[in-house]
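Hello,

I think I submitted the flavin mononucleotide job twice by accident. Can you confirm which output corresponds to this input? Input:
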Amino acid sequence: MTRRRLPRPSDVLPLIGMPDRTLTSLQRRLERCASVWDVRAMARRRAPKAVFDYVDGAAMSETSLRRSRDAFRRVEFTPRVMRNVADVDTRVEVLGRSSELPFIFAPTGFTRMMHTEGEPAVARVAADKGIPYGLSTLGTTSIEDLAATSPDTRRWFQLYVNRDRTEPEELMRRADATGYDTLILTVDTAVGGIRRREVRNGLTIPPQLTLGTMAEMALHPRWWFDVLTTEPLGFASLTSTGGTVGDLLTRVFDPGVTGDDITWIRENWSGRVMVKGIQSVDDARLAAQLGVDAIVLSNHGGRQVDMGNAPLELLPDVMSAVGERVEVYIDGGIMSGTDVVAALAFGARGVLVGRAYLYGLMAGGEDGVRRVADILEKEVRTTMQLIGARSLDEVRGTEVRLRTS
Ligand SMILES: Cc1cc2nc3c(=O)[nH]c(=O)nc-3n(C[C@H](O)[C@H](O)[C@H](O)COP(=O)(O)O)c2cc1C
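Support: Only one job matched these inputs. Its output is below.
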């Protein structure tokens, strides 16, 4: 029979959890997010619907994005145990410099719309984590301002090629002059993808004040307060605006970009060149022949062509074809550190993540981006330890397959 007694205050007091007073309430809420999916749920509550959908959505039926994510669900490791995994090394050589972690913050357009802290916040977290960050041609912070506010970040510049070549030449010159060391040429955007959520939400660039948005204001006053009381939202490197992002891509950028433009880029850019948006083995071969330093197997996070293939599924064939000649990265649908490790196990040198950090930005500005990076870092380390890989080279040698069901 259990003997009972009345609890004494000295028994109860130590059990009362006190909030960590060194954290703000926002940071405490972020701490309770156990996954990037949880951060996404928080972002959904905090950002206006049109903004959340701009990030979360993809092209047409959104099948390309779903396929990219589903491919990661089919991953099956064969974990090795009884190895000393007390210390794991997550460093990797990325285009001539060491990165602390095998993920890179991908270039994303209109970043200050997600949170007014925008690109400088993302860049600060990248610097703290020792990883690169790519500023987009459609960025909302100028090349020079980002260099000035984030001198310690390894900065890359992502280029969309205008019909008039003098504009991209000028952008390359400015990025070169301010210490960006890699140019990401995005090649999956011959025209803008058809993003239905943007049409349905009436999202235009810049966002318009309509009756609908006014009603939204009442639901997300903090976001609107930020937008209306800080530097107006606009592209920093582009003079043209109006319409949806898809319309803009089609109107301003050149659908005539070919392999010949790599030669033109080499004439205008002294750093490394990465081509992003490769979706076939043949184009991976072509890019390697053209002498680029790296390729990213990417379908733009499913935001361009619908019914495309999943970069993870394409990766083994691309590795066999060009893995010795260029560095191969993938992106699209990466939501966890396990996804990152899986991509490396299939041969990628590293991955780019887009939405994951943007969910963080919408959920809590710089704090949110940091929370996402912390979650990904912890998941990368833990997955490595649990599959018995002490380094990323060992991850690449690990046994892995894609289940068929
Ligand atoms: C909101 C948003 C904006 C993006 N803008 C750009 C861009 O301006 N330039 C570019 O090359 N890629 C852009 N991308 C694609 C990303 O660089 C990356 O390929 C993609 O986000 C990877 O998929 P993930 O978001 O599922 O991680 C954008 C992606 C998102 C989600």
